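Hi,

Apologies if this is the wrong queue. I'm a grad student, and the batch job for DDE Tnp4 domain-containing protein from Chara braunii produced an output file that my downstream script rejects. I'm not sure whether the problem is my script or the file. Here is the sequence I used:
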Amino acid sequence: MDSHGCSNGLRDEEIDAVAMEVTVVIVNTMGDKESSSHDMLTWLRQRRALLQSVAEAPDCGATCEEGVKLCAAVTSGVFLRQTPRMATGLQAVRDVTSALLQAYPNAIKWPMGRRRAQILCAFCEKGFPNCFGAIDCTHIYMDKPAGAPFENYYDRKQKFSVQAHVVVDLDLRILDVHVGYLGSVHDVCVLHNSQLFRRAESGELFDATPENLPHGVVTRGYLLGDNGYPVACSWIVSPYGGIDQGADEERFDKRQKVARGCVEKAFSRLKCMWCLFLRTHKTNLETLPQQFVAVCTLHNILLDARIDFDENLLWEVDANNVQRRVDLGIVGNGARGRGRCTNVEGELLRDALQDGLALM
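Support response: The file is valid. Your script probably expects a header line. Output copied below for reference.
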């Protein structure tokens, strides 16, 4: 499922339900840290502005009672076993998703105008002119799927999952999301079956003012990716990889990794705020993509409201009472050894960016 609109209407009298659940997320993610009175006042003002923006959203039909409870389940990581009315959980999830996408149709969108200029400028300062964002995949873990060929969902970590690829900017804002592909497939396969790929290949996405790079290379835009995209296309720049690197290649890979680190940070914030997607859970394969897109929408709303994220949520204590980072589901399937790009245009772009960094 790509991040495009939803057309189903909802009941107008329940306009505050989404705001209620966003508030739950904010409270749950504040942690146990002590705050000064000034910090608390700032937080309260942010929360008030957020709730007001949700309540005043045009054509906002929030959710039915079942939808509210399911949204709360996504926050807590625990699904409800039943709903109090006749509406099914499946319909409730659709209601929640529909409400968010109708109220915020532009929450997830490709950057344009001033926003695009800000993104391009931010990446340029890191040594990547005309870069639109960074892309990566995350696995959403689930119980063994019923009524489906489960081996197709078995990923490299030997867990059942579906994949989502996400494009983010340096502010962690989600620009594109495609979710629902089998956990066993390669990142490139997920990409090739997405609307992002079709739009990029048609020339719709990367249309910035041409940037002249060393060796006569000209670029109008691209994304940064990991070694899971070594042969994907000419508009994803992956690291060189390998162990026999020259100084310039090593410098490039380090700078590229730092710049695309915004993807992992976005996954950290999103999954730790919405715990349902952090751990294995029982799910409905039909509604899972809808849930994830809805949460990505809320992720951007919370960023716009400048709601802080408690990074203590990134740590957990395992069965051996050892503290460790939570598993964000970034499995990775890059090639071993040197990640040579078989796409000639992509390799020329990477080499030109490398030489440009060497001159900085």
